TrEMBL record:
SUPFAM superfamilies: P-loop containing nucleoside triphosphate hydrolases. Residues 662-792 are annotated as: Disordered. Residues 420-481 form a coiled coil. Residues 685-705, 758-779 have a biased composition (Basic and acidic residues). One of its GO terms (biological process) is microtubule-based movement. ATP binds at residues 102-109. It comes from Effrenium voratum. It holds the Pfam family Kinesin. This is Kinesin-like protein.
Length: 792
């Protein structure tokens, strides 16, 4: 391996001509080139008479370079003076670099790549390599890479989506780009094609300074391997078209362009620092500061012959940029390089191959172990990548279809559930209304018209029941299909490891599936939440109703006690009142029972006078008809108060006490029942023939229709009771329909005539409950008074 004597980097300056555009805009040239070596730069500001700051400054700057070319010099001349001498070195196994440096629009791309009519240094160099070397004994390979925003992009790849490349270092060949496309060129035309194709893919953008400004550094590397005796000479020519050095204020860049500019300047600054370090002979050169300097490490210092072409613009508007470029190039002149010939002998080749073979063996064993971990698959499938791809694609489609089906089934199920809930509410309401009409139709006056309405309602109920039946059927079938869909989904999940072999793809597909499953599960949760919310609402309404009942009961008891005390009833009756208040039926039997117990009697009972005989049918197992109960005579309940006071009184005593009530009077098991005493079934009493009722007064009828004023009610001996129809059926639990006002629109939609009373059910409901409370209180007061009436 031969080593040259140290030499300096060769620096050439090229000044481009003024463009047509610049000429028409009165731009004048301030750059002169003398003797192919001297560059004179005129300061355009110094000519201004009023610029006192610049008066003492020199009007021109002079720089001497290895070569200098004016605007009249063509690229061929430049090439012959700068790059051509390097080609001979490359063919001799040396590394060489040519790079163009300069501000944006100064002519770097024109110099390095050129145009079809005026090809640049890159094309001419490759042409020279093919011309100079014995083509049969040479192997020429080219790669074209771009450094954009500190990333490496393969400009030679046909796949435009090719990702970023890695920069690595080899102790023998220096920096190289791993995985880059290398073209084994057989002719100059192939390299020209690569250049044109790659340059077309370069990142360019119009800036204020250049309509096709290169925003990246483009690097063409040509490797030449030439057999020489028993060895191979390995030379590399790197040709770089740097992005323009620029000042953000002048390019008027912003956003992405500004970021690009920052990255360009960063790499150029790193390049400048490396040039400074190399020029000053420093031991440390900061190559690692940027991708560009890492890539050009062995093209700048050490084992390389380097030519720098500094491009400048002659425009007086670019004075500052041109001055900076010239200063930069002037420093680069001092870089000393010592090129080394790279001759690789067969022995070195053998050792390299041995290394490579051992690396490959390691890799093969690693891959084999990975393969062994995979589940066994048919050979045909394993071998053919297209088949594998198709299999994964099919699996993905099946999963998506499965989950889409599940979502749609789930949605339909939710809709059906909602519909069912709505129909049930309507059914309850319709039944309630029918009860009301049935009660009304007992009166002969309204019988005919009521019968018609009743018929309508029955038809509506039949229709609703039919709908509920259909919906139930649909729900059952949907639930079944949902179950089948879930089973199919689980089956698909199991098949994944067999059908998709690529781990990453499998992970990806699993992720997609998981997301979709979560989506469906969210839908299910929404559904359950909706159902629970409805149930909670129902419960809340039940609780609210029970509270109202309790409040009414307490108020009745309170008023009754006050009434009894005003009337100066005997102590034991007062005691009975206390008993009523103190031993709450709620504590003893639960709120529902109490609600039923406080349900006023049915309207027809009241019409018949709520006969005492019917009260005899009372038992704890049956509904408690509080309306039918009356307080017993004082003489009849002797001992009961004492009995009540003694908490823990045995059932036996209670039964005895009850039996002590004379048979001639109907038994009133109120206190016993309130005290939680189990009562024996009442013996049926023979019914006494009822006296015919007197026709009711209009005032009384008014009271019954719920329009009576509170004063009218107070004066009444037997106040009528208005009640919710819900309370007329105490044997069943209150349903949603009992609690809510009916959706009238829906009812009317069925063509059902909704009675006015039903429509106004909830209007003034509170007033009605108060009226009921008052009338009940009045009734109890009447009973209390009757207990203390002498002779009773
Ligand atoms: N020596 C020359 N003779 C004729 N025209 C030239 C010469 N040098 C440059 N030009 C023209 O000047 C314009 C700018 O040149 P070019 O694009 O090469 O600049 P650049 O330094 O590469 O700019 P950037 O850094 O923005 O990419 C182009 O239209 C080019 O054709």
């Amino acid at each position: 391996m031969e080593e040259e004597a140290p030499s300096r980097i060769s620096v050439a300056v090229r000044c481009r001509p003024l463009s047509e555009n610049e000429r028409s805009n009165m731009v004048h040239s301030i750059c002169r080139v003398m003797d192919r070596r001297l560059v004179i730069l005129l300061d355009p500001g110094a000519s201004a008479a009023n610029d006192y700051l610049r008066q003492d400054k020199s009007k021109e700057k002079r720089f001497a370079f290895d070569q200098a070319f004016g605007s009249d010099v063509d690229t061929q001349t430049l090439f012959q003076a700068t790059a051509e001498p390097l080609i001979k070195s490359v063919l001799q196994g040396y590394n060489a670099t040519v790079f163009a440096y300069g501000s944006t629009g100064a002519g770097k791309t024109f110099t390095m790549i050129g145009t079809p009519s005026e090809p640049g240094i890159m094309f001419r160099s490759v042409e020279e390599i093919f011309r100079g070397g014995d083509i049969l004994s040479c192997s020429v390979s080219c790669s074209f890479v771009e450094v954009y925003n500190e990333n490496l992009r393969d400009l030679g790849s046909s796949d435009i989506r090719e990702g970023m490349l890695d920069l690595r270092e080899d102790p023998v060949t220096g920096s190289y780009v791993a995985g880059i496309t290398e073209i084994q060129a057989e002719s100059v035309q192939e390299v020209m094609d690569l250049l044109q194709h790659g340059n077309g893919r370069r990142t360019t953008e119009p800036t204020a300074m250049n309509v096709t400004s290169s925003r990246s550094h483009a690097v063409l590397q040509v490797r030449v391997e030439r057999r020489q005796g028993s060895g191979t000479l390995m030379g590399k020519l790197s040709m770089i078209d740097l992005a323009g050095s620029e000042r953000a204020s002048e390019t008027k860049n912003s956003g992405v362009r500004l970021l690009e500019g920052a990255n360009i300047n960063r790499s150029l600054l790193a390049l400048g620092n490396c040039i400074n370090a190399l020029a000053s002979g420093s031991h440390f050169v900061p190559y690692r500061d940027s991708k560009l300097t890492r890539l050009l490490k062995d093209s700048l210092g050490g084992n390389c012959r380097t030519v720098m072409v500094a491009n400048v613009s002659p425009s007086h508007l670019s004075y500052e940029d041109t001055l900076n470029t010239l200063k930069y190039a002037n420093r680069a002149k001092n870089i000393r390089v010592r090129a080394k010939q790279i001759l690789v002998t067969p022995d070195e080749h053998v050792s390299e191959y041995e290394h490579a073979i051992s690396d490959l063996r390691n890799e093969v064993s690693l891959l084999k172990s990975k393969l062994a971990q995979r589940s066994a698959v048919p050979d045909a499938v394993e071998g053919d990548e297209n088949v594998l791809k198709e299999a994964s694609e099919n699996w993905k489609l099946e999963v998506i279809r499965n989950l889409e089906g599940r979502t749609s089934l789930q949605r339909s199920l939710i809709d059906v559930e909602r519909g069912l809930a709505q129909w049930r509410v309507e059914l309850d309401q319709a039944k309630e209304i029918i009860q009301h009409w049935e009660a009304r139709s007992e009166s002969p006056s309204s019988r005919r018209s009521d019968a018609r309405s009743l018929e309508d309602w029955r038809e509506a109920i039949a229709q609703i029941e039919e709908n509920i039946k259909e919906n139930n059927e649909t729900r059952r079938s949907l639930a079944e299909r949902l179950q089948q869909n879930k089973t199919a989904g689980r089956e698909l999940q199991k098949q994944l490891s067999q059908r998709v072999l690529n781990q990453d793809l499998r992970a990806f597909l699993e992720l997609i599936q998981r997301v979709q499953v979560l989506e469906v599960e969210r839908l299910e949760l929404d559904h359950f939440w909706e159902i629970h919310r409805q149930q909670l609402e129902q419960r809340d309404q039940e609780i609210a109703m029970l509270r109202e009942q309790l409040r009414l009961r307490n108020s009745h008891i309170q008023q009754q006690r006050q009434q009894l005390s005003k009337e100066k009833v005997p102590g034991h009756v007062f005691l009975l009142g206390s008993t009523l208040a103190e031993s709450s039926p709620v504590q003893q039997r639960g709120p529902l029972r109490v609600m039923q117990a406080w349900a006023p009697a049915r309207e027809e009972d009241e019409d018949r006078g709520a006969s005492l005989e019917e009260a005899e049918d009372f038992s704890l197992q049956d509904k408690i008809n509080w309306r039918a109960l009356e307080v017993p005579l004082a003489s009849q309940i002797k001992g009961l108060a004492q009995l009540q006071q003694n908490a823990g009184t045995s059932r036996l005593f209670a039964a005895k006490a009850l039996r002590s009530i004379p048979e001639s009077r109907p038994r009133r098991p109120l206190a016993l029942a309130q005290g939680g005493v189990a009562l024996p079934p009442a013996r049926p009493q023979p019914r006494e023939p009822r006296e015919p009722r007197e026709p009711r007064e209009p005032r009384e009828r008014e009271r019954e229709s719920g329009n009576a004023s509170p004063s009218q009610m107070r004066g009444s001996t037997c106040p009528p009771l208005r009640r919710k129809s819900t309370l007329e059926a105490p044997a069943r639990q209150p349903s949603v329909g009992d609690m809510r006002s009916p959706p009238r629109g829906l009812l009317r939609a069925h063509g059902v005539a909704v009675p006015q009373r039903q429509l106004d059910k909830n209007v003034g409901a509170r007033d009605k409950s108060r009226a009921r409370a008052r009338s009940e209180h009045s009734r109890l007061g009447r009973i209390g008074r009757s207990l203390v009436t002498p002779g009773r």
